[in-house]
Structures are given as structure tokens and as C-alpha cells.
Batch of 2 targets.
Target 1
Amino acid sequence: MSLFNKIFGSAEEENKESKIRWILLTDLGHLKEITEESNNLPVVIFKHSTRCSVSRMALRHFENEFDLDGKITPYFLDLLNHRDVSNEIATKFEVVHQSPQLLLISSGKCIYNTSHSDIDAATIKEYL
């Protein structure tokens, strides 16, 4: 394994099974579901660029710290394949597009969003 892969990870590591049961966000219609769902249980949207090592590091860090199973519903957006969904997220939830980016949706509104190295599972607990 190269030094680069040790530091930033590799695409192969990204395909390893996550302990988070992600729901893939692939369709604009999912945003209506997310809005409705967030009235019962907060929703996290993780916007990820599959070509970006910073995004891969943030995702891996978030997944390693995640202990919110049953407390939130986690959605995963591959923004390179679904840029239209990413753009609509920015409009609908009134956030500036970032990558990687994490949004916490509750009662149909984005109550917290962050990006890059500030993505941290522990911080979400403060909003629950």
C-alpha cells in the first residue's frame, strides 16, 4: 500500500461495508420523503464526492465515530452521479453547496450543516 493510500485511503477501502445503514439518495423525489420523514426522526444527508480524497477521509471519519443508529435516518448522496439532487438540496434547505457536506434535517428544515474536516458525528448529538 502506498503512503498516499495509507493517509487518504483508497477506492477499494471506500467499498468496504459501513456500519451505517445508508439510504442512497438518488432521486429528487427522495427530498420530499426526507422532509416528511424528518418530522418523526431527524435525517442526516452526507454529500460525498467519490473522486475526492478529502471527502473520502471525512466519510471514513464520520462512519468510524457514528453511534446514532436509531436516533437519525442516514442518507448518502454520491454528488458526482446525482448533481441535480445536490443542487436541489442547496435550494430546498437554503445551504451553500459544499463537498463533502453533512446536513441535519429536522421538522423539514436544515438545522445544522457543515463540511470538510468539520464533519463530526459527535457534534450531531448536540442537535438531537
Target 2
Amino acid sequence: MTRTLDEAISEVVVSDNCSGCGACCLLDPGLSMALDRDGFLRPVRREGSATPDAQRLSQFENACPGRIVSSPRPRGASRHPQLGSYLESWVVWAADPESRHRGASGGSLTALSTWLTETGRVNRVVGATAAPQPRRTISVTITDKATALAAAGSRYAPVATAAVPDVLDPRGAVVAKPCEASALARMAAGLPEAERPVILSFFCAGTPSQQATDDLVRELGVEDPETVTGLRYRGCGWPGDFTVTTPQAEHTMDYRTSWGDRLGPSVQWRCKICPDGVGESADLAACDYWETDERGYPLFEEGDGRSGLLVRTERGRDVLHAALEAGVLLGEPLAAEKIVAVQPGQTWRRSNLWGRLVGARLGGRHVPRYRGFPLQRLALQDLRRTVRAIRGARRRALASAASRAR
């Protein structure tokens, strides 16, 4: 008997492999995304909505990043075991001082969103921004500089950008997490370039629980979270502070503490086994281009932000070079290895991932299929580290299973 789309989605959710990207909502208007008890977005069926046909099930199984993620190999691209395929690598920043100041890392995606819409290259850019109650994060439609600046800066909280209706409109663009970029690219696979949206992405360390944001607000002394009138995770300087505003005061915490000690440890399981935190399925992928200490660890002193930028596709190359020629972005070519050097979190996770996946399977977990990533080759470079990863993942998987059984 053929299973239903609801059953296939439930398998992904129950196994903790859902990333909360929301792409399944594009396949079924009866689905929406809602926060679960752990503070993550998960698909739920609206009461009374009909289940779609079998074709939708096939599309889901081929696109959901909780089931499958692939590493693209565009023709003519260079290949790096940690960064994936790329045509060019750059360090760039927004020429506009306000975009650079308000953006998370040099304002490159903010500047591109402004330029793409105001020049008519696209009719809109789908991204993420603070909700009217700014402790929450929602998707947003960017159509000009004002809406781009309002959405500037990272949002370290659940949001389902891939669930926005018509996000695959070929006249538009989207700023998406890597898992969202993967889902959208797989949904649009086989279509001519002109029939796909421009996909912009960024290096991602995972989606923290909404509860982590709420806890952090209270930790900063805001007794009634409903009084929050503004919440910024970073930006307005680089890397920028976690900042909560109420009618009475402004409360801040430095980035190293807010992300490293509070938000980062709360990321969902699917993010901990992500093979692609670097946006391999995008046309362009941006990241922080940190200064580092003598150990290669990123420094978080305030300064003017810069973005590492990987050109993944010919379309991405066209966008970047046109933006550079127009003076929207400033920058220079950069050896890809220099991006690797300032992103130790990404390289550590990919190098440990094969061991984590093996350990998770040994502990009884189901994991997604990852195609084209050199995970086993990276794991063999340090067998002792890989064995530790296997043991740790197996132990956590068994503990999680025991907890669910109680």
C-alpha cells in the first residue's frame, strides 16, 4: 500500500531529521509551519485540508533535506572538500556604509537584495526579518532599500523561508539557509536557469530553539518578554551585539557569549548532522570573513564587516560581477583556502560528520541520505577523532531513544 505525504513527513519529523525549512508547504497548501514544544518549526496539517496526490509525495521525497541532500558539481567548477564546488571566491563588502553597518558581515546580501530589486533584475527577494513581536522571526518580501535594511542582520531563530508561496517564481530571488537552498534547488532541478529564482545563501551553524532566544531575553533582565520592542542578534557593527530593546532600556550581550554559550548549544539535531553548512546549492554563498588568532580561531572584536563569497554557478558569477561593476559591492578575489582558514566550525563539523552518522545509525537513528560529499575521506584523515565521534553519537542516540520511551 502506497504511503501518504503525511506519513512521509511524519517519518522525517519523528526521526528528528526535519530542518524546519518549510519546503513541504509548497507541495501541500494544507500544511503550515508551527513551533513545537522544543521551540522548532515543524509542518502541521490544517484541520479539514485534503491530502495531495502521489506526485506530491515523490516531489517531497526528492527534495526534503530531512531525506536527501546532494553536493552539486557545476561544469567547470573547482572542488574543495570543505567548501564544495565553486567558480570563484572573493572577499566583499557593501559599498553603501549603512548597508555595511547594519548587515551581519559586511552587508553583502543586504546590498545585493537592494540592487537586485531596485534595478529590476528581480521583482522581489524573499528573506527573513523580525516579527511584529520581535522575539520571533518571520519571512519577508524585500522590494527596495528600505525593506532590505529592515531585514538586515542575522536571525538566529526558527524561520521557514522556503514555505513562502511563489518562492520559486523565476522573476524573484531568495536569501535562504543552506537546507532551504537545497530543497528549492532540488525542486527546480531540470528547469532552465531563466525559470529558476536566484538563490542566495550563507554559511550556517544551525537553527537554535526559539526557547533559547526567550531565555536570553529573560537573562538580560526583561521580566515581561511582551514588552520587547526590538531584538537584534547581531549587526550594527561587526559582529555586533545581541541587543534587546524595551520602552525603558536597551540590553546587550556580546556575540561570543550570546551565540557561543547560549544560542549555539540549542541547535536542533538535524543541524548537528548537516553536511552542507556552506550553501552548496546556492548561486552565491556568503560568510563572515573573520580575523583569527594565532590558533586560527575567529576573533570577535568589533570592526567593519567583510564577507567571504563563493560563486557557485554561472548565474551567481553574472550577479556578482554586475554588482561589482555597478559599485554596489567592493572587494577582491580571494583564495578559497583562506575562507576555510577562518571558518573552523564548518570544517570541524564536516570532518566529524561521517563518524556522527555512523554512531547515530548504531544507536538506532534514521539519518538522511547525503550524496556527493567527501565525508568518509575526511573522516579517514583522523581516525581517532572519528572513533570518538562514532561513540559520542551512538551514546546520544541511545539516550534520546531511552528518553522518548519513558
